[in-house]
Batch of 4 targets.
Target 1
Amino acid sequence: METTSLAEDITIYCTTADDFPGGVLEAFQRLHRLVPFSTDRSYISISRPENRGNILYRPGATEITEGEFKDLPLEKFAVKRGNYLCKRVQDFRSDVARIQEAFAELLKHPNIDPQGYCVEIYESEDNVMCLVRLLD
């Protein structure tokens, strides 16, 4: 584990999985049907327990040009700036469960922000950075 800092909020536009973890793949597919792939775009997902403890999972993407998603059925969300505890998962496609394992480890830290989210920043098609925000 390491710590990293987000200097500013990151605005993402996301869709919500109908179920977790069962609906995650379908939610990603829905996002990719709406948002054209680009290496200039960041892909960031957020999740946390809501609605009586059920985990809501939201895969998202950043805009390349301001307003490009204004007519799409996507929810706007700001990943808050601040300090984050981080664990990188290399080659996650070979064993997707390693992402959940990374978050299980990160969430044991005593100083995580209870109002924060689990954040996945996809660094490439195969590597993801898993983050949880620390208290200020």
Target 2
Amino acid sequence: MSTWNSGCFLSREHEPTERVRCPVHGFIFYSRPEQDVINHEVFQRLRNVRQLAFTNYVYPGAMHSRFEHSLGVMELAGQAFDTLLLRHTDRLEENFKSLPELSDRPLTKARQLVRLMGLLHDVGQPPFSHAGEVIFPKDKGGTQLNHEDLTAWILSSDGPLGSILDDKFFPGVSNLLRVTFRHGERIPPQLLVLTRLISGELDLDRMDYLLRDSLHCGVDYGRYDHHRLISSLVVHDSEDTDSLAIGIDEGGLHSFEALILARYYMTTQVYGHRTRRAYDLLLKYWLQEWGANNFDPIEKVLEYDDIALFATMQQDSKTDDSSKRSRWAREIVRRQHPKRVLELGEHADAKDVVRTRKAVSQLKREFPDVEFLFDSMEGSVHKLFVEGDLDMGDELFLVSRSGVQTSVSERSKIIQKIPKKFRVVRIYAYFKNLGERGCVEKRAAELVN
């Protein structure tokens, strides 16, 4: 709970008088106006949007939702801001007061703003989280929309939360929130120090989901000392953006390294687990058959959650027809995932992808009774610049007591050596005769190698 006195909140009703228990953070405290936002149907929908889709088929405890994750990010946002405030009160006040919406009470409003950023950053998540984005519509320019675009609309004057936020907190807060989430929107430089706390190389979103996913999956890969890391936060002047930026003091280096390693291990061991990815594939196929028109316009996403779509999927699974939609629904509901016959990872390159695709084509000719599925999963562990990179990427600085800034990637041997990106390439198969599996695996390996 914050140690601020009552004069540091927008009003007495904004004091954190409410609380809820959290398995990761203990008690999470919030105000009555924040409670009103939490109780809104748009936010309550997140109770029924699981954080990790069908990961519970592999890790049975992974039943947690975007709802509790969002509360956790809000809690960390408050903690992080308070840490920065203790160290940089004058610099933060000078920075925020130049923004018209924050000018009269810059620190109080900025703290409330970043808490709302944490609370609402996932409010536009579709059913089954990121997997549901596969059927999001495109904008007028042909660019694929995502959950952040929906979040920006929800927070706009036309959306369900825009006017509510302005009324319950302060005028203009909804627009400040909207511009931080909408792609292509120019973010005021005064807000960059806050947006980097929610989305960046040292972001609170990642801090919470690694701890939370690790806990609910029953693994230790995602654990690190987040208390030490938050306590090490500092701000410094950024030459690139002519604004304040987030850094860490020298004592936080090992905690940050642990965060990156947690990201690496959770990605390779949990998020990229072969069976979990198999269900991601099946879910993508079913969603595509279910129909992209169901999410067009993008606001229609809010009509659905995991429960609603899984109910539809269950009905599809009971339909005794030969349609692809019914078939993929049956595979998911009855947990009949395809078997892995080949895996190249965790550092497959472009040539590996080409060879594997060619191998799939050949396998289809040689084993006509086997159905083959190709999968290539790729992602990012971090985006920090490392010596030898062709582009600058992102920078995170260690800041000494005297103010000297040193690039984290320059100081850390771990950051220098750990892969920045990963790609796992797999071939899955459905067998009519499971006895063929060994022969198929052997042949697949011969074709790729």
Target 3
Amino acid sequence: MKNKSVAWVSYTTIRLALVVLVWLALQLFTPLRGLLAVALALLISALFSILFLSKQRDAMSESMFGFFRRLNERIDASAAKEDYLDAEPQAQHDAIDQQENPAGLEDGDQGGPAGTSTN
């Protein structure tokens, strides 16, 4: 578990360091300032990341996949348990209705042929 979280932390740290280093280089060696320098630093650091950080990115994505897979399994187990608990009282209610009224008639139903009245 610790190794997987280290992958996420190391990749994020390297990416942030790349952005800062590229931004700093832009500040020192070009006349670019402000938002343009930040946007260009993000773009250049993303290109460096694509080219040189594939190993770290793969390790991070594997750890994230495992985390979300376990999370989804817990959600599915909880939903299945909830469905089971919701269905149990309904089954008991149906069994009680069947014992009280075996013909399946609702209260107020006459039980005669359709359209006839016993009054």
Target 4
Amino acid sequence: MRELELVDDPKAALEQLAAASRTTPVVVFKRSPICPVSHRAEAQFGEWLESLATDAEVAIARVDVIARKLLARGLTAELGVQHESPQVLWFAQGELAWHDSHDALTAERFRSAYGSR
């Protein structure tokens, strides 16, 4: 697993995500640092990450929707997806493969998405 730092420009960030996801899945985890639902989703995300092997083929990008508002909203606008928080944007083979939000963000759902790659 590796951390991916996204550039601030949403179009450039999408190009970055598309390129990176051609070789390995890329998971963008958007969350608010002040939202209890985001904290629960982040705990589930963390549980899934901890269950991965240390050499797992996946890249992770975390986006604070308050600190990086333009990026957070710009990514979803460019993708034609409603902005939500917490939210996951899962990229594979250069494209958005899955997105979901709120209570759908469970460790089991992450395992399922990763297993189906």
